[in-house]
Amino acid sequence: MTFKKTLIATLLAITVCLPFTFDTAHSTGKPSHKFRQVGTASWYGPGFHGKKTASGTRFDQNKLTAAHRSLPLDTVVKVTNLDNGKTVKVRVNDRGPYSGKRVIDLSKAAANKLDMTSDGTARVRIEVAEAPGSNQSASSN
């Protein structure tokens, strides 16, 4: 393929896909309490422990935190494992996951609460529990 055709194909792909890369939670900076997402969760831990997250804090695999692609940092979400009904509240402090079609990456501690560490992934539902900057105090950390 020539450079011109490649450039046109790339621009077309960006134009078609761009509207789907942002949701209202990301674009407005405030997630709706009606935000609900279902998909596959994964978890991360030892290899990232102590490294800086997108929020600037150090990742602690023993805290109840998560990475999400678009929810504003510091949002608290309730994550429900749809296979066993277990739930956990986590604070979004990082970006990702960038593997496959996963919707959230949980800390090891959060994955343990959902009983998904041995499987590595689980089908989950994500719901906003607390918007960033709200006066509610999250018991997730």
From TrEMBL:
Name of encoding gene: rlpA
Highest classification ranks of the organism: Bacteria, Pseudomonadati, Pseudomonadota, Alphaproteobacteria, Rhodospirillales
Residue ranges the record marks as coiled coil: none
Alphabetically ordered keywords of this record: Cell wall biogenesis/degradation, Lyase, Signal
Domain of life according to the entry: Bacteria
EC class (word): lyase
GO molecular function: lytic endotransglycosylase activity
GO terms classed as biological process: cell wall organization; peptidoglycan metabolic process
Name of the protein in question: Endolytic peptidoglycan transglycosylase RlpA
